[in-house]
Queue: 2 jobs
Job 1
Amino acid sequence: MVFCVKTLSEEDFSFATRLTSKMNWGLTDADFEFMMELEPKGCFVLLCGSEKVGIVTVVSFGKIGWFGNLIISEDHRRKGAGALLAKHAIDYLTDNNVETIGLYAYQDRVSFYRRLGFWDDSEFLVLKGKEFRTFTETKVREARRQNVSEIIKHDRSCFNASRRKSLEPIIMDSDNLCYMFTEGEQLLGYAVAKVSKKTAELGPLICPQGRSDIAIELLGTILNRLCESEVSICVPKKENSIISFLTESGFSESFHVTRMFLGPPISEKCIYVPESLERG
Ligand SMILES: CC(C)(COP(=O)(O)OP(=O)(O)OC[C@H]1O[C@@H](n2cnc3c(N)ncnc32)[C@H](O)[C@@H]1OP(=O)(O)O)[C@@H](O)C(=O)NCCC(=O)NCCS
């Protein structure tokens, strides 16, 4: 079987959304449009002859890159297509000076990624919930346009690379929510919710290690604004108090993922809730 890879373009959106809907990833044309804005040459379609059979997207943030949305149509699996497309995306990132590539893998895909050289880093839980109780708000305040640069700088100290290209449009989108926790003049934490019609994805959330109290304040304030939405969030499994807070608030576990890296480890000295599974 002869496979070849091409760059994703607008005409592939309907194929991409149809394919990913089989996994209930809830991706729309707008999601692929955003991925293409972030990384125009880093979104790929796999062809078998003239038939489209798979997609993958990546995004680079300087020396860190993120890998996501890998899917092959069911009737073309187990023929090496997934590995071929994944390697193409990895080569694209390494050719663009990315040193460490991250991804979130379903439990039953971990061995597939290990064979590509990825190593297991840590476990995360994806939780979903709806109709939350009301929280008492204290020190948290809504971020304004003038706070965006400070937030991006703060995010960089945890993520180890600037995510300006993804965070700026996300925070500036008036449908989304962004809250900050400050002590005196100092920004200690922030959280974002990406909001669409009836659903919202919480993340990123960044705050100092050991300060789950800040994370809980940020989460509570955002959930007060999202009482109509079905909300999802991906949380490090080790963050017991955040997970307890979310489950007491009405969330339940949907599935597990393993964060995996290819390349040198990244030092992470903070509480870190991903922005999304596909962008880290
Ligand atoms: C994960 C996924 C992309 C892999 O695609 P694929 O085309 O089947 O991948 P490959 O063929 O390269 O490898 C898959 C398996 O087939 C095996 N394989 C590859 N060529 C083979 C061949 N000629 N004969 C038999 N087996 C073969 C591989 O060893 C691999 O084994 P594993 O399942 O134990 O890891 C595909 O299963 C998929 O789209 N799943 C749904 C979406 C998803 O879960 N994406 C990943 C999110 S983390």
Job 2
Amino acid sequence: MDRVVCVQCPVGCKIRFELVDGKIAKVEGNRCPRGLSYLEDELREPKRVVPTSVKVVGGKYELVSVKTSAPIPKKYIPQLMKKLKEIKINAPVRVGDVILNNVFDTGVDVVATRTVLKDSNCNAPK
Ligand code: SF4
């Protein structure tokens, strides 16, 4: 049987499954129905929440941590990482600020997960 680990909750069930003609024929190991939905999504189009950081200009820190507000298809992750590497945000940045809106038309935003205040000693352009 093939395996996948469900990441929908901290239990992390190890789901074993068999496919026949591309369809799920047998499933074991999921403790709740969400595991089956997760498996179906993984087989159809795997998605992940993307945590990373972006550059901050004029802040107390040079980076601010960010993440996608919901999982996005894995196929978009390399493009998203490239795009986020090019972005520079002017301080201050606050938790929940939208850094990138509607990533690749998925309806998912990239949001700040911490606050970076302005550095009063910084001479960066405002
Ligand atoms: S199958 Fe249910 S209990 Fe198991 S990890 Fe997924 S969500 Fe959690």
